[in-house]
């Protein structure tokens, strides 16, 4: 049985841990509000852009684009997102598990034919620890701390250029989608090739398809500009979505840790009081026994 000193030391340690988890919870809450604001300000633009593009693609049967070319998959690129730090529950473990499942779908390809765009310190480290000769494309760790459209545009342009040049035949996105503060959904989406059915969409676009647009100079010219813009916006939206999901996961994890610390403190306090009472009772008995012996 631990001594009173050991229990007191454990109580102090748990109190210190509780202060840390409580502070991290408040920081995660502030960052989550910022991430949600970023998504909310960008979402209407993304939804409208996707709606217009879907309508154009649905109404234009003659339109052809090299970004929609369906080919036999001989080389694939996987864009996978994680956090830069831990203490966010199963957030990184879930996305890494989904990443390995995605790799299993391409087991017929040699490892050298799989390009990895690792966005986030955790997934970059975990994917390299697999000790497989994947073709890693740069390092994008800062993007998870501060998502920027310029960084997302750089990745999207690299993917589109490689796809046009037949360096890759397909692109998949693997990330945690923010559904609510308590729920993050591991998601795999096809990014390229583009089609009206698999057009990258952020959020639920519930509008009916309109096919009576009046466009200038012509529909094909507009589509040639809209498709790359939509793909760039999609990458940015996914990064922002994953960043919000990370903070939501960390907020929940720190709340659970704080609650657990409180439960442990209650148990330790009860144990401390019981043993302290036993020690006091034992001392009283010794005093009484000594007094009786003097009579």
Molecular structure report:
Strands 3-2-1-4-5 form a five-stranded mixed beta sheet, with helices on both faces. It has two domains: 58 residues, ATP synthase, gamma subunit, helix hairpin domain (Helix Hairpins); 219 residues, ATP synthase, F1 complex, gamma subunit (Pyruvate Kinase, Chain: A, domain 1, 3-Layer(aba) Sandwich), CATH 3.40.1380.10. The longest helix is centred in the C-terminal third of the chain and has 76 residues. The relative contact order is 0.19. It is elongated and about 115 Å long. Helices cover 59% and strands 11% of the residues. It has six helices and five strands; from the N terminus they run αβαβαβααββα. Helix 1 runs antiparallel to helix 6 and helix 5 crosses helix 6. It is α/β, with parallel strands linked by helices and 295 residues long. Strand 2, helix 3 and strand 3 form a beta-alpha-beta unit.
Span of the ends, CA to CA: 36 Å
Largest sheet report: 5 strands, mixed
Q: What is the CATH class designation of the largest domain?
A: Alpha Beta
The number of helical segments is 6
> How many separate domains make up the residues?
2
How do the strands line up in the largest sheet? 3-2-1-4-5
CATH homologous superfamily classification of the largest domain:
ATP synthase, F1 complex, gamma subunit
* Overall pLDDT score: 88
Helix content: 55-70%
**CATH architecture label name of the largest domain:** 3-Layer(aba) Sandwich
The dominant shape is elongated
Spans of at least 5 consecutive residues with low confidence: 198-209
Instruction: Determine the structural class based on helices, strands and strand pairing.
Output: alpha/beta
CATH topology of the largest domain: Pyruvate Kinase, Chain: A, domain 1
Strand content: 5-15%
The SSE order reads HEHEHEHHEEH
Gyration radius, rounded: 28 Å
Number of strands: 5
User: What's the assembly state of these chains?
Assistant: single chain
